[in-house]
From TrEMBL:
Region feature Disordered, mapped onto this chain: 1-21
Organism of this sequence: Neptuniibacter pectenicola
Pfam families on file: His_Phos_1
Superkingdom, taxonomy of origin: Bacteria
Protein name, UniProt field: Histidine phosphatase family protein
Native organism taxonomy: Bacteria, Pseudomonadati, Pseudomonadota, Gammaproteobacteria, Oceanospirillales
Length: 145
């Protein structure tokens, strides 16, 4: 999931907060897709404020307590390292809250095996990917919503 719409400036990129409409769009997306997301049992997010706020809304909307903060999911992180880190969560169904361009690179790497043609994500957009093991080319995109 890409974080909700964030303010355009702050003291640092990591300190950018969700806008009121960004926060509401996350809540609405989770409410409208709660059944689809019913198997999610963990939220992984970057340490940036906008992803923390998004992750908290997701956790609240899905009644989850398991949240994991990971610097492997920041905007400029290594897509392969981020994807491979999911092996630590193979016993769960995580929802990852992260940023552009990383989210598009990880989706392309996981589902296509390469980052040649990443697709952009809109704010609060979720990609559902089915994967037996988190590695390049082993995922299958189920849907985006």
């Amino acid at each position: 999931m890409r974080h909700g719409e964030a303010e355009s400036s702050a003291s640092s990129d990591a300190a950018r907060r969700l806008t009121p409409s960004g926060a509401q769009s996350v809540i609405t997306r989770i409410q409208h897709n709660a059944e689809r997301l019913s198997s999610v049992n963990r939220v992984i997010h970057s340490p940036y404020l906008r992803t923390i706020q998004t992750a908290e809304s997701v956790a609240h909307g899905l009644n989850l307590t398991a949240m994991v903060d990971s610097s492997l999911w920041t905007p400029d992180a290594d897509p392969l390292a981020a994807l491979e880190s999911l092996a630590d969560h193979i016993d769960s169904t995580p929802l990852i809250v992260t940023h552009m361009p990383l989210i598009s690179y990880v989706e392309a790497l996981c589902c296509e095996g390469a980052i040649a043609y990443p697709r952009s994500f809109s704010c609060a957009e979720i990609a559902e990917i089915k994967v037996e093991w988190p590695a390049a080319g082993l995922g299958s995109l189920v849907r985006r919503f």
